[in-house]
Amino acid sequence: QVQLVESGGGLVQAGGSLRLSCAASGRTFSNTGMGWFRQAPGKEREVVAAISRRGDTTDYAESVKGRFTISRDNAKNTVYLQMNTLKPEDTAVYYCAATERWFASSPTSYDYWGQGTQVTVSS
């Protein structure tokens, strides 16, 4: 079992930056692929970014390419999402997730989920 705890969400002005962190525990963190997802009110949960077990493969939603960066520090059992040039449409609850696969992009492929952290971007 993997336990995940997100932090770093909050309010930010459009054009600003925010850094989300996800601390993992419960098993060998380096053996899990990781992802960030988001869900806005009335919308389906969607992938934002994913990173492979070793961190050598990443994938991003088209809407965040060039603005967001996912990274991981296996020594610290932590995955990050650096969000730059934030837009109001980025407003959502952001979830950290872990998969037993080495890498995955779809929500259905993930086995463990954090509680979510709210990100609100104002105009």
Task: Please give a handful of descriptors for the protein shown.
single chain; 123 residues; mainly beta; seven-stranded mixed beta sheet; four-stranded antiparallel beta sheet; 11 strands
Structure description:
The strands form 2 sheets. Strands 2, 4, 5, 6, 9, 10 and 11 form a 7-stranded mixed beta sheet that branches. The chain has a 4-stranded antiparallel beta sheet with strand order 1-3-8-7, with no helix packed on it. The mean pLDDT is 94. A hairpin with a 6-residue loop joins strand 4 and strand 5 (46-51). It is 0% helix and 50% strand. The protein is globular and about 40 Å long. The protein starts with a strand and ends with a strand. With 123 residues, the chain is mainly beta.
Ordered list of secondary-structure elements with their pairings:
Layout: E1 3-7, E2 10-13, E3 18-25, E4 33-39, E5 46-51, E6 58-60, E7 68-73, E8 78-83, E9 92-99, E10 112-113, E11 117-122
Parallel strand pairs: 2-11
Antiparallel strand pairs: 1-3, 3-8, 4-5, 4-9, 5-6, 7-8, 9-10, 9-11
Order of helices and strands: EEEEEEEEEEE
| Percent of sequence in beta strands | over 45%
Give the tally of β-strands: 11
Pick out the low-confidence regions. none
Residue share in helices? under 10%
How large is the radius of gyration?
13 Å
Structural class: mainly beta
Biggest pleated sheet: 7 strands, mixed
Distance between the termini: 40 Å
Shape: globular
Number of helices: 0
Mean pLDDT: 94
